[in-house]
Design goal:
Largest sheet: 6 strands, mixed
CATH topology of the largest domain: Gyrase A, domain 2
Number of strands: 19
Helix content: 10-25%
CATH superfamily of the largest domain: Probable tRNA modification gtpase trme, domain 1
Order of helices and strands: HEEHEEHEEEHEEHEEEHEHHEEEEEE
Radius of gyration: 22 Å
Strand order of the largest sheet: 10-11-12-9-3-13
Shape: globular
């Protein structure tokens, strides 16, 4: 039997040739089969491009599915916990989807491209599950990850940079809105979305125009401090914004092997995404029962004293840590812009209400010697970073 050759090595995104020219440190990892940079020159400088200028991140490996057909709205409303009927054409919705036990499979953004036509963008691949869920619905599901190149353009000067490209009318675009432009004869879709908690946009175009788009973008931004960035800088901004990440704040339920290791939307602080007023959706019964009885876990944002980052730390009710831990830190960073030691974590209910004080057990190393430090932490209920420019319409000309 003749077997088809299996592709060895990582795929290259449509922007890889441009990223490769900027790479000084050779730090890459695999993202769904594609090569993605951890950093290109210095993750700290890349981070400050997000907060002080314009940062560009290659989104192309993000999983993308196009949903179309007469029953596309009914299908999505059955699929996700949010009421997609409220998301009009030209808008984008953050959403989560669950199994029948109300445990999160994944989260992502759903773009209402045009009437009856949607795009799901997510971390994980879900084609088989999407197809199985489509039984009985008149919908077409297309896996189009390789067909769409994507760039995140984030930071205070991002609007000025894109305006320099001649994209008239972009200033009227509100957060979570999307619009379309012509770029060299191809459709360029721009959404006012991002993963940094700052002013920013995401650009979507066919792969053949990717390099031309990159060149035009960097030419327009050369006087506005534009820089390409890697995952490390984006991750720091993500924690400052209080955003969740799969495999950090939650483990997709189909990746777990033990009960109690997955999370529901209610346990992740996403109750606002669960609409019990709409008809049946995956996990509805289990989530209604959880809401009635109470959740087992609670996602917390922690403002921690000191400057020792609480990576992989346990959380305790008091400083003595004489009893079992009440939870653990999922993501932790020192925030340069907030000048705070911050973290996201998961604690057992009823602990972790806003204003509560807890203690975080931190281990850190100096010259090969380990030290243990019990740091006081306060549970906060707001993102650590939320500048006014993030939601200003039109954005200021920075």
């Amino acid at each position: 039997m003749i077997r088809q050759p299996v592709h060895q090595g990582r795929l290259k995104t449509p922007f890889h040739s441009r990223l490769e020219k900027l790479d000084f440190v050779n730090e890459w990892h695999e993202w769904k089969g594609y090569s993605t940079p951890d950093s290109l020159y210095c993750s700290e400088l890349e981070y400050f491009a997000i907060r002080n200028a314009t940062a560009v991140f290659d989104l192309s490996p993000m999983t993308k599915y196009r949903i179309s057909g007469a029953d596309s709205l009914e299908y999505l409303n059955r699929l996700v916990t949010r009421d997609m009927g409220k998301i009009k054409p030209g808008r984008v919705a953050y959403a989560v989807w669950c199994d029948d036990q109300g445990q999160v499979i994944d989260d992502g953004t759903i773009f209402h491209l045009r009437e009856g036509e949607y795009r799901i963008c997510s971390q994980e691949r879900h084609l088989e599950w999407l197809q199985a869920s489509a039984i009985g619905f008149d919908v077409t599901i297309k896996h189009e990850t390789d067909d769409i190149a994507g760039l995140a353009v984030q930071g205070p000067t991002s609007f000025s940079v894109l305006s320099n490209m001649g994209l008239d009318g972009l200033g009227d675009l509100k957060p979570f809105g999307l619009t379309h432009f012509d770029f060299q004869g191809s459709e360029l879709m721009i959404s006012r979305t991002g993963f940094t908690g700052d002013l920013g946009y995401e650009l979507w175009i066919e792969p053949d125009k990717a390099e031309a788009l990159w060149d035009a973008l960097f030419e327009a931004g050369k006087l506005h401090g534009i820089r390409a960035i890697g995952v490390h800088a984006l991750e720091l901004a993500r924690v400052e914004a209080g955003y969740l990440a799969p495999y950090e704040e939650f483990l997709p339920v189909d990746e777990t092997v033990r009960t109690g290791h997955s999370r529901s939307p209610l346990e992740l602080g996403l109750e606002w995404l669960v609409d019990f007023k709409k008809p049946n959706f995956n996990g509805r019964r289990a989530l209604a029962e959880e809401k009635r009885k109470g959740s087992n876990w609670r996602l917390v944002k922690l403002d921690i004293e000191g400057n020792k980052v609480a990576v992989s730390s346990f959380i305790f009710e008091n400083k003595k840590a004489s009893k079992a831990a009440i939870g653990f830190v999922t993501s932790a960073v020192w925030s340069p812009v907030c000048k705070q030691n911050i973290a996201l974590g998961s604690v057992r209910a009823p602990h972790g209400k806003p204003g509560d004080n807890v203690w975080v057990e931190i281990y850190y190393q100096r010259e090969m010697h380990w030290s243990r430090y019990m740091a006081k932490a306060t549970v906060v209920d707001k993102p650590f970073w939320f500048p006014p420019r993030r939601s200003a319409t039109p954005p200021g000309p920075y």
